[in-house]
């Protein structure tokens, strides 16, 4: 398993990460969504360097050029609801990708607000057999939602390679993924990695609740 932290090297990722973490800039919901889209596009571009390509003949107005195009078949899967704007950023670049959606949420213990299980209630996905599967979710906090979503998606086949993409991941989540998912043919991508979870399993410093920042607070 390979772990890639895009903030280890200076780029526009660092600029956009600074903005989406900033509690004052976050008040502009449109700007927050735009930055999530941008990060999705950058991550899609970086992942595209790992895909397989084939050479085709492309006819120009003057001659025929040899060009390289993506040979892999891609399935872009997202964990609802917070993952949707990140998904759209990826889809802006992977315009031929098939799409899958998984509904996952935290069901808290009525007697202990710090305890919860993750529930999967909905899955819509094409076959992923021998395809490259990208699973995107803004926050990889404990790793439990991502692991359950991954296992649910495997009911649709066996992918050739899996890319897990998050805006912010934690050391704890990465360790959980390493222990609970197959390490072969799996790459974890994060725009940045934080090192702390609080008592409610929220990422610190993190950026807050990504879903609420994109769509508004929920009851």
Please provide a written account of the structure.
- With 219 residues, the protein is of the alpha/beta class.
- The chain has a single domain (2-53, 71-215), classed as Rossmann fold (3-Layer(aba) Sandwich), CATH 3.40.50.2020.
- It is 30% helix and 37% strand.
- The protein contains six helices and twelve strands.
- It has helices spanning 12-21, 29-48, 84-93, 144-153, 171-180, 210-215, and strands at residues 2-5, 53-59, 64-70, 74-80, 98-109, 112-124, 132-136, 139-140, 161-170, 186-194, 196-197, 203-204.
- The strands form three sheets. Strands 1, 4, 5, 6, 7, 8, 9 and 10 form an eight-stranded mixed beta sheet that branches. Strands 2-3 form a two-stranded antiparallel sheet. A two-stranded antiparallel ribbon has the order 11-12.
- Helix 1 packs antiparallel against helix 2 (29-48).
- The longest helix has 20 residues, at 29-48.
- The radius of gyration is 18 Å and the shape is globular.
- The protein starts with a strand and ends with a helix.
- The model has no long low-confidence stretch (mean pLDDT 92).
Indicate the mean pLDDT.
Answer: 92
Characterize the biggest β-sheet: 8 strands, mixed
Q: Which stretches are poorly predicted, pLDDT < 50 over at least 5 residues? A: none
**Tally of contiguous helical segments:** 6
Oligomer: single chain
Number of domains: 1
What is the β-strand count?
12
What top-tier CATH class fits best? Alpha Beta
CATH architecture: 3-Layer(aba) Sandwich
User: Fraction of residues in helices?
Assistant: 25-40%
Based on CA atoms alone, the radius of gyration comes out at 18 Å
Coarse shape: globular
Note the beta-strand portion.
35-45%
**Helix/strand/pairing category:** alpha/beta
Terminal Cα span: 38 Å
């Amino acid at each position: 398993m390979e772990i890639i932290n895009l903030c280890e090297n200076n780029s526009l990722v660092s600029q956009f990460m600074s903005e989406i973490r900033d509690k004052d800039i976050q008040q502009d919901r449109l700007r927050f969504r735009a930055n999530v889209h941008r990060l999705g596009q950058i991550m899609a571009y970086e992942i595209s360097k790992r895909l397989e390509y084939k050479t085709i003949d492309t006819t120009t107005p003057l001659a025929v050029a040899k060009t390289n195009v993506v040979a892999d078949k891609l399935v872009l899967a997202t964990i609802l609801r917070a993952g949707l704007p990140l998904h759209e950023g990826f889809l802006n670049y992977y315009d031929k990708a098939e799409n899958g959606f998984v509904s996952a949420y935290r069901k808290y213990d009525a007697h202990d607000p710090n305890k919860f299980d993750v529930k999967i209630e909905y899955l819509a996905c094409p076959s992923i057999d021998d395809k490259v599967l990208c699973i995107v979710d803004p926050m990889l906090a404990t790793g439990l939602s991502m692991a359950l979503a991954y296992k649910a998606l495997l009911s649709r086949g066996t992918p050739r390679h899996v890319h897990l993409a998050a805006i912010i991941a934690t050391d704890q989540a990465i360790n959980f993924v390493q222990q609970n998912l197959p390490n072969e043919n799996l790459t974890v991508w994060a725009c940045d990695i934080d090192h702390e979870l609080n008592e409610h399993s929220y990422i610190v410093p993190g950026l807050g609740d990504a879903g609420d920042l994109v769509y508004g607070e929920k009851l």
